Amino acid sequence: MTVPAVLAAIRAAEADAGRGPDTVRLVAVTKGQPLETIERLVLPHAGLQPGGLPLGEGRAQELRDKAAARPDLEWHFVGPLQLNKVKYMRPVTLIHALEEVRQAEALADAAGKWGRAPAVLLQVHNGEAQKHGVVPDDLRRVHAGVVATGLTVRGLMVMAPDGDPEAARRVFADTARRAHDLGLPELSMGMSGDYDLAIHAGATLVRVGRSLFL
């Protein structure tokens, strides 16, 4: 699908869910894609979305190199954050997958030197053993610890179990409830195969990559 087709599907899902237009923002996940491909297939359509089209990278060195070449773009980091890769987060506007207070402490320390700090989302563990994230019962503790570092926590992120729409609905609904309970406005939920379900559950950010480059 092209960027215009994905945006049209997002707007249709918003309407079907009884939500207003442009309440969901597409994050184009560009990890593994050369900058030339991004500039050809994604960036020409950035004006179709209010506020532009943020690009989501999941590998720190790749982010570093692309952001250095295009510092004019809005960069998000959507992968697991390793402590030794915090130094590459300087150009990032939003980190989607913070899961430990020590990551926040390292990020806040680096941001003090940069003079600016990315906002963050806390990744919620979805119950699958191999996935990253904060165990839901620890969410309030981790949220308080991250806030204490001075970072801005804007919301939650979750990855739904693959290939199980009913499980995805449950995970999305539970994450939306937890964000509401914490007073957090942003929900990064939904990828190429399940963003329709995520939008119906309240997602404000959907992370789509594969569909944009087929």
Describe the structure.
- There is one protein chain.
- This protein has 214 residues and is an alpha/beta fold.
- The chain has a single domain, classed as Alanine racemase (TIM Barrel, Alpha-Beta Barrel), CATH 3.20.20.
- Helix content is 37%, strand content 18%.
- An 8-stranded parallel sheet has the order 7-6-5-4-3-2-1-8.
- Helix 1 packs parallel to helix 7 and helix 4 packs parallel to helix 5 (139-148).
- The longest helix is centred in the C-terminal third of the chain and has 18 residues, at 165-182.
- The radius of gyration is 16 Å and the shape is globular.
- The termini are close together.
- The model has no long low-confidence stretch (mean pLDDT 95).
Helix/strand layout:
Elements: H1 3-16, E1 25-29, H2 35-41, E2 55-57, H3 60-69, E3 75-77, E4 92-98, H4 101-114, E5 119-124, H5 139-148, E6 153-158, H6 165-182, E7 186-189, H7 195-201, E8 205-208
Parallel strand pairs: 1-2, 1-8, 2-3, 3-4, 4-5, 5-6, 6-7
Helix pairs in contact: 1-7, 4-5
